[in-house]
Amino acid sequence: AVVSTQSGHYDRGYQPLLAAIYTKDAKDKVSLYLTKNASEKEWQAGKTKVFMKETLENVLEQQRVIILGSAATMIQKHWRGAIARMHYRKRLDNIIKVQSIVRAHLYRKLYLQTKSAALVVQKYVRGHIARQLVAEMWAEKCARLEAELESQRQALEARRAEMERLRKEAQEQEADQLRKELEEEEAARKKEEEERKKIEEERMREAMRKMEELEKKRREEEARKLEEEKIRIEEERLEKERRWSVSGRRLKNKRRISCVKSWKKKKLQERRKKKSERRSKKRG
């Protein structure tokens, strides 16, 4: 196998094997490593290349695999640790947020309960103080009102006594005047009553006279109408009898018609009579 040492680049990725050697020259770095980990028979350094036997190459390859595996494991460990720390921080932040929300809710609930309790206490205390103030104000107001009422009552009693004295004097003065006025009014009322009675009697007599005249005229009119109706009925009867001699059947029908007409006329007369009676009653 051949390892190139130009520009510090090595074939097959042997850089991990030389990481622990701190020299600037790549050839020196390879020589030091092989001298330390292999015999001089298994390798030979040229100007730009290093020649190795297959056994040494297998050994180096195994070491490289081991180092790369451990490096990969270390990288995975750090990466997984970083991811785990990131998730842990994220979960921790979420837990802290949830805790803060829950604590805020609990503290807010406690604060509201405390506030409501404080408000209730304040309400009862303020109510007690207000009731005391109202009671004191009411007592003062009642005392003031009682004093005012007492003064008003005294003034009213004095005024009432004065008015009573004036009323008695006025009653004594007015009594005589009212008596005279009442006597004059009674005399005038009696005179007016007598005149009114006379006028009513005259009106009643005039009304009775008019009613008698109207009733007389109505009776005369009814008698005249009845007489005319009887004459007309008799004439119709005679006419019907004359016609019956010509035709018995025709006469029979005519008799029926005359009976119906007479009945209708009778009814009409009764209605007229009732109307005239109602009119006379209304006029009376």
Short synopsis of the structure:
With 284 residues, the chain is mostly helical. The protein is built from three helices and three strands.
Describe the secondary-structure layout.
Layout: E1 2-4, H1 26-37, E2 43-45, E3 49-52, H2 54-246, H3 248-283
Question: Order of helices and strands, N to C?
Answer: EHEEHH
Which structural category do the helix and sheet elements fall into?
A: mainly alpha
Q: Termini distance? A: 166 Å
How many runs of DSSP E, i.e. beta strands?
A: 3
- The largest sheet has its strands arranged as 1-3-2
Account of the 3D structure:
- The chain has 284 residues and is mostly helical.
- It has 3 helices and 3 strands; from the N terminus they run βαββαα.
- Strands 1-3-2 form a 3-stranded antiparallel sheet.
- β2 and β3 form a beta hairpin.
- The longest helix is centred in the middle third of the chain and has 193 residues.
- It is elongated.
Structure keywords:
three-stranded antiparallel sheet; 284 residues; mainly alpha; disordered N terminus
